[in-house]
Design a protein that fits this description.
Elements lengths: L23 H22 L3 H14 L4 H13 L3 H14 L6 H9 L2 H22 L3 H14 L4 H13 L3 H14 L4 H12 L40 H60 L6 H29 L2 H9 L9 H32 L2 H14 L6 H14 L3 H14 L4 H12 L3
Keywords: Coiled coil, Membrane, Repeat, TPR repeat, Transmembrane, Transmembrane helix
Pfam family, one: TPR_6
Protein name: TolA-binding protein
């Protein structure tokens, strides 16, 4: 080991014989920095970029010359659209160690691509212009600018969050959710996006968003100095609370939950359970009656060897109807347990075309609308996690099921893209090309389509 003071070799007793320096504390500091870097790397692998940034910043406080940590922090900043912060970290890294430093490659990749650099610079200018519009109470113009920003820099998290907030104030909750989902796909624990989701839930009944609920970011073109770094929020969103109102609000919230919200929710759930139980009983009775009727028909047909083709076809249709009712009944029983994925799997086996009664079709469609979106979300998370861990066969299986259940088309684009990447990594190139073509055709102009086109070009003919 090298002494940090005189740069001479240190003996095994953690003591420098040249300058008489005790380096035990120094070693502990270096080990702490390495530990925090490893934690940051782990968070990056699971796309918790906010957590990774926190660990890496703490890591650099212990050892500002930790090149790996600084380069990784730059990559994360670049991933969330903060190009200036990314370049800052890579330049500092290069100044500490200019020999064989991968930061050189990162800087060249950004600066040598003039077209991309112009797009990023334009995105930053339009983002600042959007903030000016907001300060001038011109929300419509701000939304237009922010749409252009996220088209130029699709991973610019701050722009997505501000756009979501404007949609929330305009009471366009679907678009707000889409913007927030894009943020969470990039950084799954982004505090601002999660806070806005919480606001969406809290205001679901009133559908109104006041300016006091969540504060907008302020424009700051100046580089923060050392004196104000601690107060500089990573997402530039501040939340102002007054002490007295917090306790009063909590007390009122508890009373409302106790006397209004909870009883209403309990009664609502009980009504749903009772309704589904009655529907299950009606379907059971209808199934039993149908089976008995069919059994009677079968006994009658056994004595008649001249069964016509029309009678056989009708019998087949009735058999399919009974089978569909039995499958629907099983799906209802699973649905009552609350397992949405198992419910969706059971519903997928039901032949909806065979349910020729209004009651059965209505029940089928009702449960399908509840179970399918949640099943799509869970299968996408499973598939993406499998892809990240290298379990590619399992990833393909789970991501394919997303397409089966994603009736709202929230995850299909990403699911197709990662399925294509999984096939590519499995060397099933023909299947990968087919999937990539679907992404390019069905989701033109998106980042996934651009990436799909790039990876398809890498597959040899």
């Amino acid at each position: 080991m090298i002494c940090p003071k005189c740069t001479k070799d240190i003996n095994k007793n953690n003591f420098c014989e040249h300058c008489n320096m005790e380096v035990k504390l120094y070693k502990k500091i270096m080990n702490t920095s390495k530990y925090l870097y490893n934690k940051g790397l782990q968070q990056t692998k699971i796309r918790d970029l906010s957590g990774a940034i926190d660990y890496l910043k703490r890591c650099l406080k212990y050892d500002k010359t930790n090149i790996d940590a600084r380069n990784l922090l730059g990559l994360i900043y670049f991933e969330i659209g903060e190009v200036v912060l990314a370049l800052e970290q890579w330049i500092i890294s290069k100044n500490y160690d200019s020999k064989d430093n991968i930061a050189d490659f990162y800087i060249d990749e950004v600066q040598n691509n003039q077209h991309k650099l112009d797009r990023l610079n334009t995105a930053i200018k339009k983002y600042n212009q959007a903030l000016n519009y907001i300060n001038q109470n011109s929300a419509d113009l701000a939304i237009i600018q922010l749409k252009k920003v996220v088209s130029l820099n699709p991973n610019f998290i701050k722009a997505h969050c501000v756009l979501a907030l404007l949609y929330m104030r305009a009471e366009d909750l679907d678009k707000a959710k889409k913007s927030l989902l894009k943020v969470l796909a990039i950084d799954k624990n982004n505090y601002t996006a999660l806070r806005y989701f919480e606001s969406l839930s809290e205001h679901n009944d009133s559908n109104t968003f006041e300016s006091e609920d969540v504060l907008l970011p302020q424009i700051d073109n100046k580089k923060p100095n050392k004196a104000n770094k601690k107060s500089f929020s990573s997402d530039k969103f501040d939340y102002i609370y007054q002490g007295g109102y917090i306790f009063l609000g909590l007390a009122i919230g508890v009373l409302i939950m106790s006397f209004l919200v909870l009883p209403t929710r309990i009664n609502s759930k009980n009504n749903v359970i009772n309704e589904l139980t009655e529907e299950k009983r009606a379907i059971t009775n209808e199934t039993s009656s149908t089976i008995k009727h069919l059994e009677t028909q079968i006994n009658s047909l056994e004595g008649d060897l001249t069964v016509t083709l029309e009678e056989l076809e009708e019998y087949q249709q009735r058999s399919e109807y009974v089978k569909a009712l039995e499958q629907l009944q099983r799906a209802i029983e699973i649905h009552l347990t609350g397992d949405r994925v198992a419910t969706a799997d059971a519903m997928y086996d039901v032949d909806s075309n065979a349910l020729d009664t209004t009651v059965a079709s209505r029940i089928y469609n009702s449960i399908r609308e509840i179970a399918y979106p949640e099943a799509a979300r869970q299968y996408y998370n499973r598939g993406y996690n499998d892809y990240q861990r290298g379990n590619l066969t399992s990833a393909v299986e789970n991501l394919t099921k997303v397409l089966r259940y994603d009736i709202q088309d929230r995850f299909s684009g990403d699911a197709l893209y990662f399925a294509g990447r999984s096939y590519q990594r499995l060397d099933q190139n023909q299947k990968a090309i087919e999937i990539f073509n679907q992404v390019i055709e069905n989701y033109p102009g998106t980042t996934r389509a651009t990436n799909a086109q790039y990876y398809r070009s890498l597959i040899p003919d």
